[in-house]
Amino acid sequence: MTDPFLAPALLGRLALANRVVMAPMTRSRAVDAATPHAAAALYYAQRASAGLIVSEGVCISPTAAGNPDLPGLWNERQVAAWRQIIDAVHAAGGRIVAQLWHLGRAGLPELLPDGAAPVGPSAVAIDTTTYLARRQVPYVVPRELSVAEIGAVVEEFASAARRARDAGFDGVELHGANGYLIDQFLHASSNRRTDAYGGTPVARTRFLREVAEAVCAVWGSGRVGVRLSPTSSFQDMHDPDPAELFGAALDALSRRELAYVHVVEPGVSGAQGTGEDRTGQIDAGWVRRRWDGGLIATGELDRERAAAILRRGDADAVGFARLFLANPDLPARLASGAACNEPVRETFYGGGDEGYIDYPTLHAAALLDHLVEGGHADHVAGVAPLSGATPVHDWPLAWAAARVRPGVGRGALAS
Fold first, then answer.
1. C-alpha separations of 200 from 240, 263, 322 in Å
2. Where are the alpha helices (DSSP H) in 338-415?
3. What angle do CA 383, 387, 388 make, to 5 degrees?
4. Fewer CB within 10 A of the end CB, N or C, for the chain?
5. How far from 280 is each of 234, 248, 302, 333, CA to CA, in Å?
């Protein structure tokens, strides 16, 4: 019997070598002018065994950002930086799509151009606080977008999609989840409009429809995905009838030739598990009964739950975030039943190479065992330290060599 994780899959025109997807993860490591971190090419290439990599959220314009150290796709310098990353992933045999992102009312004025207020569908603030420079700050009331401004934001999505294509991405994913701008238009708690973009569930899907249409016009059929989080309340998302709302959203998207819908499973709010009972909630199986296109399920999955979703046919592929962060060779570990490295939460956001490119694969751990048990530590004295500049084929040895040099232990991240 074929292992459910290693079977190939076709999502639109995206041919996946296996059904294990690296889900998008904010790492807050962008540098000057919202360009990706210098080690990002190695970080993504290390994980190229994924059937598909969905990049961290990439802001479509300066005014779409508003959180610390996020990468963008609004100028040629950023395109050139992403091209290096994509070339590294492709050279390692992987496929990668860009997640296009507008934070909407979740942006902070301190991190927006000229200290401007964030924008949203309505002038309704997120009713909680967030962190800025290690202190809690309240979200501010966003400025309601005019109809003309909505059209301009749709064009920003299309422009970012063109730049993603120019950079060499294999496709794009629209971030329509987790309380960001597209999700804000969907939910009644954040969308109080009385024009064509608000009111009924169908009307609240209009912005999503227009963005999907504009981006599909850039990419053509089968290379655009959409991420949705029907059950997440993250960033104050609530709706009186989620089933009606997301049924309308799927109906709207069914008119586009998408590669896939990427659904966040119940029991997840943002990047955290909630521990809530998932029974009877909108999950991948619910979506599958209403959507006949490609489908990815993500959210606090372990090996057993993910395998069950695939075997039932509830999704074509399963996504993992923190497990992929800590296990660059996650497909092999899932298929073999090997133990997984534990992610180190303190290095999730911000910082440098630590917690970014120094989680070992099974191969790297085996090299370390060979060096230690065979007494070959002196053979690697000249191996350069692991860094973002380390070639992707050399990094396992660089990781192992660093841990057998005098004064360096095996390390907390050893498999």
1. 11, 22, 36
2. 362-373, 395-402
3. 135
4. N
5. 19, 19, 20, 31
Question: Is residue 122 within a helix (H) or strand (E), and if so which, with residue range?
Answer: none
pLDDT at 380 over 50: yes
Does the active-site annotation cover 180? yes
Q: What domains can be seen in the chain, in order of their start residue?
A: 9-347 (3.20.20.70), 362-402 (no CATH)
Smallest CA-to-CA distance from 249 within 277, 223, 211, 194 is with: 211
**Active-site annotation holder among 43, 44, 180, 359:** 180
d(CA 409, CA 393): 23
Mapping DSSP onto H, E and C, the string for 274-290 reads CCCCCCCCCCHHHHHCC
Mutual orientation of helices 206-219 and 147-167 as an angle, nearest 10°? 30
> CA 390, CA 151: separation in Å to the nearest integer?
43
Q: What is the pLDDT of residues 163-199, one digit of tens each?
A: 999 999 999 999 999 999 999 999 999 999 999 999 9
Mean pLDDT of 303-321: 97
C-alpha distances out from residue 103 to 98, 176, 184, 316, Å: 15, 10, 9, 28
**Residues 120-173 pLDDT 10s:** 999 999 998 888 877 889 999 999 999 999 999 999 999 999 999 999 999 999
Helix intervals (H) in 47-168: 76-91, 147-167
Name the average pLDDT for the chain.
92
User: Please, how many CA atoms are within 13 Å of residue 34, restricted to the half-sphere of its CB?
Assistant: 25
Q: How far apart are CA 386 and CA 408, in angstroms?
A: 13
Residue type, 190: S
pTM (2 decimals)? 0.94
Handedness of CA 87, 88, 91, 94 (dihedral sign): negative
DSSP string, 196-227: TTSSSHHHHTHHHHHHHHHHHHHH-TT-EEEE
Helices (H), 12-115: 40-46, 76-91
Q: How far is CA 326 from CA 139, 333, 340, 350, 414, in A?
A: 31, 12, 8, 16, 11
Banded model confidence at residue 408, pLDDT cuts 50, 70, 90: very low
